[in-house]
Amino acid sequence: MSQLLKQPLPLRVWLETERDQLNQRVADAQQKGQELAVRLEITSSDRSKPAGPHDLLKHFIAAEIRMRQLLLSHPAPLMITDDEGRMLLTNVAAKKLLAAMGYNFNKTQPVYPLLEEAFPDFKPDQEVYLQVDEDYSPTGEVVLLAKETSIKWQETPARILLFHDISVESQARHKLENAISSLEEINRMKSEFMSMATHEFRTPLASIYSSLQLMDQYCQKLAQETESKWLDKLLRHVKRSEEAIQHLDGLVQEMLVLEKSQAGRTRFDPYPVSVGKLVEEVVDSLTPLAEKLELPISYSCQLEDPSKTYPVDAQLIQHILTNLLSNALKFSTPGQEISIQVKEVDTWLCLQIEDQGRGIPAEDLDSLGEPFFRAGNVDNVQGTGLGLSIVKRFVDLHQGRLEITSQLGQGSCFRVWLPINLQSKENEI
Amino acid sequence: MTKTLMLVEDEASLLDNLEEMLELEGFDIIKAMNGGEALAQLKTHQPDLIVCDIMMPMMDGFEFLEKVRAQPETASLPFIFLTAKTSEEDQRLGRELGADDYLTKPFTREGLLKAIGLRLGKQHSLSHLERERSHQSGSRRSQAVLMRIAAVEGDVKTLEDLIQEGGNIDLLDEQGNSALMFAVMMRNEEAARILLNAGADPKLKHPKTSLSVQEMARTMGLNRLAREMG
Which domain of life is it from (chain B) (predicted)? Predict the structure, then answer.
C-alpha cells in the first residue's frame, strides 16, 4: 500500500496562520472583557475608550481587597480553619475573642491555638459557653452559637466558622426558665395550701354541722313535750344554719375538684358505658328533689339501642349531668318542665338538658364557665360559680364541647357533645 | 341487745357530738382521742363497730386500722373511717387496709346511721352464717348455705358448680339474706356478677337495713356493680 505523505507548510505561511489565530483569540478576549466590563459597570480611566483588560484586572484586585476587608472587619468572630483545625484566617473580632480568652499573639510571629484547643466543646449549631475577661463581657462569660460551612481555601478543603453572640438571648431564656420554675413552685404550694385549707375547714365544719343536727333533733323532741312560738323560730334558724354549712361544704368540695382538674390531676378513665342508663340513674337520683320542687322531668332516650355503650368516664359524666340538671332545677319555678334528651348526631353523642326557667342574659353567656362567675340574674339562688367551670373541664377531658343557648325569661338549653370515636381503655366491661 | 360503738377522734367537740348523737340512737359508746388510746381500750373492751378519724396525733387512723386487722380478736370488726380527707387515693388506701366504709366530714346524721346499720347488719348476717355452717356439716349442708358461704369467700368455682345444680338462687336465710347480698357485703364483685347473671334478684331488700341489694352496692362504693344491676 502506498502512503501519501503530506508536504510541510512553508514557514512563512505557518507563521501567518498562527498569527491570525492569535489575533483572533486576542480580539475574542477583548470582546469578552468589554462585555464583562459593561455588565459589571466598569469604566476606563479614559472615558472615551472602552474598558480594557488592565481596567478589569485593577477592578478585580480592588474587589478582592474589599472582600477581605469586609471579612476582616465583620463584627462577628469569623475564622477559616483547615481539616486539622489549624486557623488559616481570623478576623479582627475573632482575634479580639481569642485575646479575651487569654491567648496572647506575638505580633511578629503569631501562634494561633488549634480550634479544638480554644473551643473544646465546639459543635456546629450548638451553644458554646466561654470564659472571657471582663473587658469583653462584664459577666465574664459569653454564649456563642457557631455556624459552619465547608469551602475550598487555596485549593485545599477548609471550613468557615461564624460565631453569633447569643449571650443576651441566653440570659433572657434563663430568666424565663427561672420564672417558670418559680411559678410552678408557687402553683404546687397553692395546691398544697388548698388541700390543707379544705381539710382544716372541714373539721370545724363537721363539729358545727353535727351540733346543728343535734339541735334539730332536740327541737323536735321539745316540740313533742311543749308548745312554744319560739320553738318554730329556733328550728327555722337551725335549718338555715344547716343549709349554710351545706353550701360552705359544697364550695370547699368544688374548689378542690376545680383545683385538681386545673392541676391536671383529675383521673380520666374512658370505658364503654351505657350512657342511656347512666342518664336514667342521674334523673332517678334527682327525681325526689324535682318532685318536691314541683318540676316535672321528662327523659327521652333517642338512641336506636338505648343500652349502647360509649367511651366515657362514667364518674365525670355523672358529675356533668348532675350539675347541669341541678342548675335546671335551681333556676326553674314550680310547673316549668325540664327535658333531657340523649341522641347521636353523626360522630357525636349529644346530651341535652333544657329548662323553661329564667334564662341567662346574653351578655353573660360568654363568661359562663369562668371560675366564680355567676350570671347577673341569679338573685338569691345559692351557688358557688364553680359548677359550670368544672363541667367545662370535664367535657374538655372527653375532647367534647359544651354548647349553651338561652333566651332571657324563656329558658336555657345545655348541650354536651361527646365524640363517639374516643379511644377507650377497654372494649368490654 | 345494746350495741357498743368505739369512736376515735382527736377533735374533742366533734367526739362529744358523735357520742351524743349515737347515744340518742341507743348505742353504748367507748371514746378515744387517738389510735394508741383506742388500742389500749380494745384490751379491756370489745366494741361491735369502730368509727375512726384518719389524721390524728400519736397514731393515725391508717396505722390503727392495720393494728386492729392484725389482731385475731378484732380482725373482722366492722370499721368505718370518718375523715376530712376526701381524695380518691386516701379512700382507696382505706379500703385496701380493710375499712368497710369511708365517710367524709362534714357528715350527715342519716348517712352515719345508715353506714353503721349496714356494717352491723353485715356482722350479724356473717355470724349467723357462721352458726349455720357449724350446725350443718358435710353432706347435710344445704345447697343454699353452701352458696352463701361461697359468696362470702368469693369462691367463684364452687359458686358456679352450685348454680349448675339448679335450685332457688335467692333462697333467703332466717335473717332474710340472699347469697347476692353476702357477695355485695363482702365486696366480692366477681361472685356478685356470677349470681346476677344466673338470675339473682338485685331488688330484694336486706331486712336489717331495709336497703335493696343495689342500694347496698352503691352504699359500699361499688358503683359500677350497682349500675349493672339497673
Answer: Bacteria
